[in-house]
Amino acid sequence: MGELGVIRNYAYWSDRRIRDIASDNGIPLERRVSWKAKTAFPLIGGLEVAPEARTLDRAEVAPRIETAIGDLAVQDFVTPPPVMFAKGVGRVEFAQFTGGIEKRQVVVIYTNTRSSTGSRVDVCLFGSLENTADYIGGSDQPPPGWSSSAARTIALYIQSRGTINNSQWDDPESLAVEALKIATEQGVTGNWDEHENKPWTRGFTLGHTTESEWFAQIYSDVVLDKDRWTFPSDGGISPDVERILIGAPLWVRTPGAHAVTRYRDLRSGSDRAT
Predict the structure, then answer these.
(1) Is-cis flag, bond preceding 142, omega within 30?
(2) Distance CA 113, CA 71 (A)
(3) Superkingdom of the source (predicted)?
(4) What HEC string does 95-141 produce?
(5) What is the distance between the alpha carbons of residues 31 and 237, in angstroms, rounded to a whole number?
(6) Is residue 271 predicted with pLDDT exceeding 50?
(7) Strand 73-74 relative to strand 85-97: parallel, antiparallel, unpaired?
């Protein structure tokens, strides 16, 4: 076997969600390639050769999912909403999500991108903290801070896969803005300028990865009304955001563990990445 050209690590992998999508859409996640010999008639003799199913590993599952979903997974957001799946490459930030309705711990994953026409798109993804790799800091205990009054609404919306929203943020744009506040401002204490470009100083934040591939199922995709929304330059939301996606991550794949910055290390005074 030759050398690996690229070493990839999965900072996030949702096996349950991936298998649900595969099952619902007839995407096989097993391969019958291994053969075994077995006795056809015990005590009489004779051999029967039969195929043995082998479960695919992540490096095989991910391209099968991407290939099957195909163009339904949007990467260049020049087409109008909504999209069902989205993917991209870039910086991805991880933080604990607090104030939800579930006992299990939840992670909020944030990234942003620009379309080929220059429009800014912010992506807010919510998943199980158990699906994060150890090296991303899922088991860390970051300091607390501000949490959103819309957290329970967002948690219910994600849990229902985008079907339930009976809150005061009852229109898609309002809900999207609240989700973006959670992804970019949750945990802030004091003035924003104390945290700008220093995400490890915010409560609940865990770390970020660089040049990472992400793939997600999308529940909400809205283009903001520019006459309705104005965001100050001294806040977590970028004033030039035009489109917001809310969804659940399938995976975040990094170009090796060296691409991860763990905020636990920065809080302890170390600038090393793990």
Answers:
(1) no
(2) 18
(3) Bacteria
(4) EEECCCCCCCCEEEEEEEEECCCCCEEEEEEEEEHHHECHHHCCCCC
(5) 45
(6) no
(7) parallel
Q: Which two tokens stand for residue 78?
A: 């020049």
Tally: H helices and E strands in the chain: 5, 10
**Model pLDDT for residues 130-189, shown as the tens digit of each residue:** 999 988 988 899 988 888 899 999 999 999 999 999 889 989 999 999 999 999 999 888
Asked whether the CA dihedral 165, 170, 173, 176 is positive or negative, the reply is negative
**Tokens at residue 165, please?**
């929203």
Within 177-259, strands assigned E span 205-223, 241-254
Q: For the chain, what's the residue count?
A: 274
- Whole-prediction pTM: 0.87
What does the pLDDT look like over 17-44, one tens digit per residue? Answer: 999 999 999 998 886 555 555 555 555 5
Q: Please report, as a single letter, which amino acid is at residue 105.
A: Q
CA gap 127, 204 in Å, rounded? 15
The amino acid present at 178, given as its one-letter code, is: E
- Beta strand 120-128 with 205-223: parallel, antiparallel or unpaired? unpaired
As a whole number of angstroms, the distance between CA 136 and CA 91 comes to: 13
Percent of the chain residues past pLDDT 70, beyond the cut: 85
Q: Which DSSP symbol is given to 152?
A: H
